[in-house]
Amino acid sequence: QRHFPEETNAENPALALLNAVIQAQARLVSQWQLLGFIHGVMNTDNMLLCGETIDYGPCAFMDAFNPDTVFSSIDHGGRYAYRNQPGIAHWNLASLAQALVPVLHNDAEQAVALAQAAVDTFSDHFLQAHTEGLNAKLGLGEPQADDAALIEQLYTLMAEHATDFTLTFRRLADLAHPIPGNPQDIGEVYTLPNAFDPWLAQWRERLAREACEPEQRQAAMYRANPVFIARNHLVEAALAAATDNADFAPFHTLVERLAAPTEWQPGSRALALPPEEGQRVYQTFCGT
């Protein structure tokens, strides 16, 4: 009644609840993937029915793109790696469906069939939400046949050259409509390798097929692509300052900037840049 009041009046409230939870989790995990967020401990008890994120202990945002990235100190086999998160969410929802089988239908076989059919919709819900999010990040409108290949090529380049996940997409927003004096442009602090040039040419050709005005597209891309995230080394520095020196200034500065993550502030460039080698955080812990 609190999170899904409309489901209480459904013909089959338990099934309606299951379907609503599946859709909520598909949207949530698609957002994780779109922001390079790695939860780190996706046990079934760490997934809320309402589709919000909980248990932030070992979570982290990816810096250099690698789909196999893992941060949690207890995840030795990469079960909860970035690339595996949608599949783990799917598995967790199957566990929820199994628990609901006794109340889905009086007939056991029909109950199992209803549960399976519901769980099988997760992939489509996730794909739709993720595709819509990627299109927004890349400035793409109506889907076209070559979009999937274009996106796959981008991810391949990002992995091969270990470009920063967040700033790669943000830089693309700059390049979607280059104009002198753009106050949101981050070109002075982050650029893409020359190896991206052929892909950029294909992407620009794809953008040229859109009816949207370049200015409107770029503004939408800026809204979809943050420049400031809670980078691991910044979180560690804020924690250390607070616990070791009772200095909460780094924490408050970081929180203030994260309150407007898509607004570029040149004076805060240190909070946007990827970590240097000595600043990298390779492991996170449940106690964080």
Spell out the key features of this protein.
288 residues; mainly alpha; 2 domains; two-stranded antiparallel sheet; 10 helices; 2 strands; globular; nucleotide-binding; magnesium; nucleotidyltransferase
Written account of the structure:
By secondary structure, the protein is mainly α. It contains ten helices and two strands; from the N terminus they run H-E-E-H-H-H-H-H-H-H-H-H. The chain has two domains: 125 residues, no CATH class; 139 residues, no CATH class. It is 50% helix and 1% strand. Helix 1 runs antiparallel to helix 2. The chain starts with 12 loop residues before the first helix and ends in a 30-residue tail after the last helix.
- The chain-level mean pLDDT equals 96
Overall structural domain count: 2
Q: What summary fits the major beta sheet?
A: 2 strands, antiparallel
Helix content: 40-55%
In which order are the strands of the major sheet placed? 1-2
For the termini, the CA-CA separation is 33 Å
Overall geometry comes to globular
Q: In angstroms, what is the radius of gyration?
A: 21 Å
Number of strands: 2
Structural class: mainly alpha
Please indicate the percent range of residues in DSSP E strands (runs of 2 or more). under 5%
* Number of H/I helices: 10
Outline the low-pLDDT stretches: none
Work out the oligomeric state of the chains in this entry: single chain
H-E string: HEEHHHHHHHHH
